[in-house]
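Morning!

As promised:
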Amino acid sequence: MVDPRTSVVEERFSGIGRIIAISSGKGGVGKSLVATTLALMLARKGCKVGLFDLDFTSPSTHIILGAGDAKPKEDKGLWPPEVSGLKYMSLIYYTGDKAAPLRGVDTSNALIELLAVTRWGSLDFLVIDMPPGIGDAVLDLIRLVRNIEFLVVTTSSPLAFETVKKFVALLKDMKVEVLGILENMKMNDSDSVEAKTKKLGVPFLGEIRYDPKVEKAIGREAMLFDTAIAQEIKEIVESGLC
Amino acid sequence: MHEWALAEAVIAAATEIAKKEKLKQVTEVTIKIGELQQVEREIFVFALKQLKPVSFNNTRFRVTRGKTKLKCRACGNIWLFQKAKLNAETAEAIHFVPEVAHTYMKCPRCGSPDFEIAEGRGIWLENVKGAC
């Protein structure tokens, strides 16, 4: 017995220039905001961008985008609808506002299903909002998606960085490209995260100071561009990403 | 026509197997479809025939259906999936991603959404036969 779905995943991603997974060892560090803002910023620069929410149990990019009632179009697969200039895919289309109580095997199956049937077409970038931690989604993506790159988000807290350290070590062990570490919600002037990142041998991408305006910008794309997250991500994008 | 994407996956997987086993002609491909995904058999078989490469010219596609057995992790109850008990919107959501069954269905005995899809989830490639 063979699961045929994995055989078609490479083909589904063949029209995509770069695939960037926004991850962290820890939850609550701002991955979804970073992923959404990065996708929007790349699109604003004129790139063709997709945003894929793989945080099945706690999806939130649809809230950040203020996505309406758009649904994927069914034509020899699923074509993500356009939301705020992005091709946007999420399990939320099929769960609505209800919980998805998925165990590991179910998460893996749902992920492989979406990888196999979603048609992205031609994109410059696909940004993936990952669930927290080193779990099924991370391992499945590394197994199935060649050339995937990880952008790792942390906060200044040693609790967050400790998990990020393990996460980056695993990625390096598995010979997966790490774009770098981004420090989010910074509330002091310490440069300890930058120093610790350098010790890990991966780039320090920058720091985003804690910005209370972010909460008000959720669901309001225009306001999101006026936050500290957007300012820092703009610098990352302009420093060579796009 | 979500079936088309699944048929593409089957052809890709069967082609990989044929290549690995050095089969010049594939004579039979056996596929099992679990009821939970509610695949339209006719559309699926039509897509398989449209997508098949030259080495599959004389291939017989055997498509069998399997019941979906669900097992509650909380109380151990085992029951069979019945599409008729779902409304159209829920059935369609489960058709696209069978795991969202956990969002809409519960164990009929204890009410837990924590159940295992023990059998009959979606599409499986059972066998690829051919001649070298």
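The CA atoms of residues 86 and 127 of chain A lie 10 Å apart.

Hope this helps with the figure draft.
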